[in-house]
Amino acid sequence: MTTQIDEMRLDGNAIGGLLHEIFAVEMTNAVGTCAHCGAVNEVGRVHVYVHAPGTVVRCPDCEQVLMKIVRAKGRYWIEMTGTRLLEFAVP
Amino acid sequence: MGFVSRGFRGKRRGEASSTRLPPGQYLVTDWPVLSAGPTPRVALDDWTFSIEGEIDEPRKWTWKEFNALPSEDVTKDIHCVTKWSKFDVEFKGVSLDTLLDGVDTAAEHATQISYGGYTTNLPLDDLMGNKAWIVYEANGEPLAPEHGGPARMVVPHLYFWKSAKWIRTLRLDKDDIPGFWETNGYHNYGDPWREQRYWGD
Fold first, then answer.
1. Tens digit of pLDDT for each residue in B17-74?
2. What is the value of pTM for the model shown?
3. What is the DSSP code (8-state) at residue A44?
4. Cα–Cα dist B135/B142, whole Å
5. Which of A49, A53, A75 sits opposite B82 (nearest CB)?
6. Of the candidates B152, B134, B49, which has an alpha carbon nearest to the alpha carbon of residue B98?
7. Nearest CA of chain B to the CA of A4: how many Å?
8. Which residues does chain A have within 8 Å of residue B183's beta carbon, measured at their own beta carbons?
9. Do B35 and A4 touch (CB under 8 A)?
10. Distance CA B111, CA B162 (A)
11. What is the ipTM score, two decimals?
């Protein structure tokens, strides 16, 4: 199986506002470690798919899921098993 | 002769069309593309579809074998949980009744698994009884990759996230195993007529 560059793919800057809402701090320059392949990337560089039932964040190195974020009914459901570590400055 | 009230008939037609759209949905004429990841491009020579899990003899078809199976043309309305509905999509594919014919299984659940890793779960009963198809054509054209081609599941009586694009495997499960969205806030069953969008609906 092969994949090709997807026109529906955005980068992590597209969810800067959403992550700020969740973490209450600027997150696009936070650094995350992928639990699947170990790659370390700035949040601004990750791959983001928003044309879906929720927001899907994927590792730019291995394309596995780092985070799934669903915001509905006044709640968030956030899955982060694909993110082993998230490092960011205390505001 | 002629005691028919045209006004009354007109009203009934109006009611009929409004009851075709599930609650909270709006009608589209295009076909929006939703995508939770990169679009898999599966070469037809490499494509297979299999039925695995709680089954004594797993079944597997190549693209050529799958296309030789008896096919059906069905026209269905589809309902996406993001609130668009599309009427009268013409699909061509193979009924799950054909694919599961004669299968002896203790499973009551099933998980669709896609090329690319997407999963979605549903009761096995919802795949049988002329309710589900694996389709390879839509509106007279080969199914485009962005819509799940070469072949996708279509289970039109549930929200469309329950119809996996790029289907690779149907796993028959004894236990109910929630899938990609079902583990993440989305309803485990997803009946559009009962507006089962999220957990607790």
1. 568 999 999 999 999 999 999 999 999 999 999 999 999 999 999 999 999 999 999 9
2. 0.92
3. G
4. 9
5. A53
6. B134
7. 7
8. 79
9. no
10. 10
11. 0.93
The one-character DSSP state at B183 is T
Query: What residues have CB less than 8 Å from B165, skipping those under 6 apart?
Result: B114, B118, B147, B148, B152
| HEC sequence for B73-127 | EEEEEEECCCCEEEEEEEEEEEEHHHHCCCCCCCCCEEEEEECCCCEEEEEHHHH
**B78, two tokens:** 């589809």
Q: Which residues are within 8 A (CB) of B190 and not within 5 positions of it... i.e. 6 or more apart?
A: B81, B122, B158, B159, B161, B162, B196, B197
| Gap from A26 CA to chain B (nearest CA, Å) | 24
Residue type, A35: A
**What residues of B are in contact with residue A6 (Cβ under 8 Å)?**
35, 37-39
Tokens found for residue B198? 């999220």
Closest by alpha carbon to B157, among B77, B74, B93? B77
Q: Delineate the domains of chain B, giving CATH numbers in brackets.
A: 42-194 (3.90.420.10)
Q: Which residues of B touch A75 (CB under 8 A)?
A: 185
